[in-house]
Fold each of these.
Amino acid sequence: MSYLVSILYIVAFGMFIYGLMGLTGPKTAVRGNYIAAVGMLLAVVATLIDIRDTGNWIIIVAGLVVGVVLGVPPALRTKMTAMPQLVAMFNGVGGGTVALIAWAEFLDTDGFTQIDGEPTVHIVIGSLFAAIIGSISFWGSIVAYVKLQELLNKNVEKKLVGGAKLFQIANVLLAVASLAIAVYIGINADPANDPTAGIWILALLVVAGLMGLFVVLPIGGADMPVVISLLNALTGLSAAAAGLALNNTAMIVAGMIVGASGTILTNLMAKAMNRSIPAIVFGSFGGDGGVAGVTDATGGTVKSTSSSDAAIQMAYANQVIVVPGYGLAVAQAQHAVKEMASLLEQRGVEVKYAIHPVAGRMPGHMNVLLAEAEVSYDALKEMDDINGEFNRTDVTIVIGANDVTNPAARNDSSSPIYGMPILNVDQSKSVIVLKRSMSSGYAGIDNPLFTADNTSMLFGDAKKMVAEVTEELKAL
């Protein structure tokens, strides 16, 4: 039977990797998800076969049922606008599960020791690492969810970001406390002989949980996509550590895949913002989550336009670039944008989509959103590929994107986002910015693009205004 388990694990790992490869593009992403899901099913079956002699089958089955009941409905009902929140929550649940596994392992092995009383190094290190990182990931993800869902009062959030230095000091103390407790548990804790030993593992989970809260609370909204990716990587690493303690091959491999891919993605996103990961974690910018601010503070004049004027500009252009942002996602305007682009293409206008690496609220948010509307993958252009196109583009229409188009990142050394690579939309011959109001973006800073000489503002709901532009195009 052990041979069957090994074979199932190998097949499952192969499907994990093959499924992950499918996630590199919208055309193969759905298939990749299905393949990875089947691989996970095989891994679960192999694990159940491996523990066939256990007497806890009822509890195991009950856990599987509860997981399906709680996991499937939100996955089916969640809109693309709330997908980052769902990812944060699911990621947090994974980290919390790993922390609980470490706690259970502590109780089951008499303080991470074998039955004969001899310490088991891989169990001790793996379980303690899983407890600390899993707890950090869980509580950090909860904060990320609260921020993304905008459940936190804006003024409170702004004060939290302003107190980042205090949080940093607290996190250093909490990190030292976590390591001290972990060392004590590894050397001295023995639930079989010491009734107070269980308090130490709970103390470790609480201290690590506080660290997770304090790490993410002061991080600004503009950095949240990177934070989600980082927490995802941490959850994977904690799962791999728990797998090491449990001698579960599936958890080790799956955890390392998630940890490695999440780490690579986090690093790539940080580079896309021209910032280091420590700078994001310990010195974030912009945390008021989009508190309204007048963007003509620089003294410029805001010029409004109409849907008919916008339609005329784009209809007689040679090339139009669409820059999607979170506002497009909130309005669910992707299908309206696709229809507008199709009409332009019928008139001989070349339409491209400029995708910034951190546009939206999570990695790949805009890619998935546009793929949902069946926008051609070839029309989606990454920042490095499209930036050279703007200076020969007739019209760029910015839909709900703010911080990733802010020229202050390139021109103003005093700006909090100075040095962050942006989409060079201001170099276009004409720019149409579609927004509900003159409020600032998620980083909470002014955008001089809105008052530039070549920029016109089209105010209103993205879906409604794009639909109006489409009707005007039909009438031309």
Amino acid sequence: MVARVSTVAFQGIEGVPVEVQVMIAPGKVLMHIVGLPDKAVAESRERVQAALHASGLSLPPKKVTVNLAPADLPKEGSHFDLAIALGLMAALGAIPADALSAYTVVGELNLDGTIAPVAGALPAAIAANAIGKGRG
């Protein structure tokens, strides 16, 4: 099963929709993040693992692949953390995957699992609204 979570990448002041796809499969125990991530996004792996552990969850002893689609769009910043963590939780069955489908998620995770503020909330909200996400 592939869990999917909506987030955004920033190009200047514009938020561009990005889909975080998370798959857990048999294989060597490690977590790959693909889709043109920069250093801050690659470091999400450590923040997400620590935050999940602090929340009482842990990664399974399997191969975890996180794809940030579209793959040809550069991804910069730590605001992908929360979307990656929620995608992992959905892939693990800790939360229902369909509960995430109506929202666009941005947030940096602290090691204790709390969410740190991030820049770009307004462009993210505008991008979410443009694709019909987050309406109550």
Amino acid sequence: MANGLIASYRNWLKFRETYNELNRLSNRELDDLGIRRGDISRVAKQAVAY
């Protein structure tokens, strides 16, 4: 059970890191990546396979 909690916590940290990094980008930079600002949460979730 502890391993599952640790894995969940690590996934959450990776999600937050990805979300924050994408959120710091300008709309132009996001557009260059093919991401809309409203898609940031979805993209961050995909990064950790939520």
Amino acid sequence: MHVLIVDDERPARDRLRRLLAQEPGIERVSEARDGIEALERVAADRPDVIFLDIQMPEVTGLDVAASLPDPAPLVVFATAFDEYAIRAFDANAVDYLLKPYDAARLQRALQRVQDRLGNRAAQPGHGLAVQQLLVPDRGVTRIVRTEDIEWIETADNYVALHTPTGAPLLRQTLTGLLDKLGPAFVRCHRRAAVQARLIAAVHALDKGDCELVLHSGTRVPCSRQYRDDVMARLG
């Protein structure tokens, strides 16, 4: 099992690492000091489970859990505060450890993780799309809910997330982002995709191209290459 520890406090990370070193079946343990680094580690290392603190500067553990890519690692929250338990389990957490916990309590959490991993292996392909995206912007991290994104377009090495309140830039390929967002979005152009439920009309153009009109009135180009996919999604 590959474990990622996410906590902004070094002593807490060190203690959990020592406890995990005593447990069988732990092949690798890595660490992240905040939510942004945690998502970077998840994308690069693909851990099986994250032990995730909740109260962290700028990006909380709950925000991290809601922003995990599909397929997402399992999440065990480890926090000194009990008031987040309901929200944690709403986020599909495997367990909720209250600090300070002992080795016996950690073992029970690890057993739950093993059970869940076994169930996941028996039923592959049931991951969930991310509910929100974390967008760094000049020292501030914006939280963009996927349901608020009307359409997406490429911008050099970034994608612009068009929402009713703006279009923040995220360093990500369009293809990679659509893999995270799941079936709610449909690609309509080499450089664009739209949230399918927001399409209000399809206007035919010359040479098989068309234009998608969203409920907001925004017009998004749709090339001949992707028109059949869009129409199929619309039923």
